[in-house]
Amino acid sequence: MRASHDLTRVSVSFDEPSLVPCAGLLPAAALAQRVGLAGLVEERVRLARHGASSGTKALTVIGSMLAGGDSIDDGVETFVSHSSLAVAERRRAETAFAEARDCVIVSTSTLELGIDVGDLDRVIQVGAPTTVASFLQRLGRTGRRSGTVSSMLFLATDEQELLRAAALLLLWGEGYVEPVLPPPTPRHVVGQQLLALCLQEGTVGAQTWPEWLGSLTLASAAEVVEIATWLVDTGHVDSDTDMLFMGPEAERRYGRRHFLELLSLFTADPEFTVLHGRVEIGAVDPMVLTRRVDGPRVILLAGRSWQVSYIDWKRRRTFVEPSADVGTSRWMGMPQPLSYAMTDAIRRLLLGAELPRVTLSKRASARLASAREDAAGTVDPRGNVVASWDSISCAGGPGLEHGRTACSVPR
User: Quick one: pLDDT at residue 190?
Assistant: First the structure.
């Protein structure tokens, strides 16, 4: 797909009939214009190429990507990267970003850690991460070349996102980064280690297996014995002549896929693998395949729309064909709570704290001033923000332990 930079006359020509038609680009461009993306980018980004302005180019690139395009008229390629894409799709984007020039990648936090994406000119952050550490990881992707500096633009689509972004920048300017603290007593790891030892060694001594833990203080000696006893009583571990080995309950619950769930550091919610023929495209949340739709079921994945042709419920697979209709996809997730440091930074912002080393756009400055005015009656310099939601009231102040909030629900 190729798109014109003149957004007063958005025009798109398709070189593949399977790509999303022009109707997919127009809403994306309209949304980007409504939140002022072109103006925000124009203030902070300079592109070496001649022709359209940098803000309009950036708007067109993102709009084209959302519409399923893979290039625009000046050769800028766009890629998508997130954890639900197939490995081959993610590698294609990562390789292009590490080696190619004039390309844009739209990503979730998958590119935040452990992946070398080359030298980036700028990160455009839509919304705000919830931690300073995450912000620093994303900012650190830029400014790696000699003579360049780290550069990041926050695009806040509402007042809450603006306050979160500003709070992150306030904490960053103060030199704050979240401490990495291990859980004081991760007792669940004791049970996992015993099961893993039984799997690894075949049998372990009922009295000697804690020696494998070394100096790790995962739990007290009495708790270690209690956990082992519970595993034996519930059938997760079997015992014979003072030796322990894998029990039938552990085999039943964790035996699939070579005990992958037992040995994994974390597990994810089940997803359906999406296949075009024999080629894996990625995975989608089951709700995408179960919600009611009028007409064919069309999903959006890897920057393209796909019509579902068959669903294998038992094997959690769905087979698709390219579609010219506009597809949608959603993934379920849990909202991340804000730390005390973040909420306190928001409180200080609303009280008038200034942001060092940060340039706000005129629109952001006006919105922040409006937020401070609106919150004048609920912010107190002596304590936390006082707020009320329906019948639940929450209040904090100097009389409470640092970082704690007292909440009451009327009966």
Answer: 92
**Residues 6 or more apart from 303 whose CB is under 8 A from it?**
65, 68, 69, 70, 78, 79, 80
Mean pLDDT of 128-141: 88
* Residue from 96, 178, 173, 163 nearest 133 by CA: 178
Q: Is 314 helix (H, G, I), strand (E, B) or coil?
A: coil
Q: Is 90 exceeded by the pLDDT of residue 330?
A: no
pLDDT at 67: 45
The CATH number of the structural domain formed by 187-263 is 1.10.10.10
Is 299 strand, coil or helix? strand
Q: Which CATH superfamily is domain 2-173 in?
A: P-loop containing nucleotide triphosphate hydrolases (3.40.50.300)
* pTM of structure: 0.63
Q: How does 167-206 read in b/e, with b if 16+ C-beta sit within 10 Å?
A: bbbbbbeeeeeeeeeeeeeeeebbbebbbbbbbeeebbeb
* Other CB atoms within 10 A of residue 378 CB: 12
Task: Name the residue ranges covered by the structural domains of the chain.
Answer: 2-173, 187-263, 272-322, 380-411
